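Write out the 3D structure for:
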Amino acid sequence: MPSSVKPQLFIITGSNGAGKSTLKQALLPPDFNNLNIFDGDIFYTQKSREFYKVHGSSKEAKKQANEALELHFRKLVAYHIANKAHFAYEGHFTGQGAWQTPTDFKDAGFDIHLIFCGLKEVIRSIQRVEIRVKKGGFHVTSLDI
């Protein structure tokens, strides 16, 4: 993109199992087809497995994966803001702190695009998460969905 274009932040959010990861690239405008979209769930799952191999403890692996995810994401955010570079990520707004990232981008002069994905029936989301888990993906309880 030309440097004269205002930097853009795309946040793809919505319920678990709604198809965010499956559809994420198609959800962006055509001019952003080559923009990498950070998926914290994938990063967390990979790190959990790595740390489990080292420690043999699921609890410790999850703790370290969470810390690694937070550090990596913060570095990505800082880099993209400092360089006025377009950025996209999948995110959940599960707490007040989740709004800090878009606020930081907005304060840095970015346009913010919030893309919400959802399904009409919760049971479909639950089924899609079950399929994802069978393929080695990230688990979310039905209650959380």
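The domain at 8-134 is CATH 3.40.50.300 (Rossmann fold).
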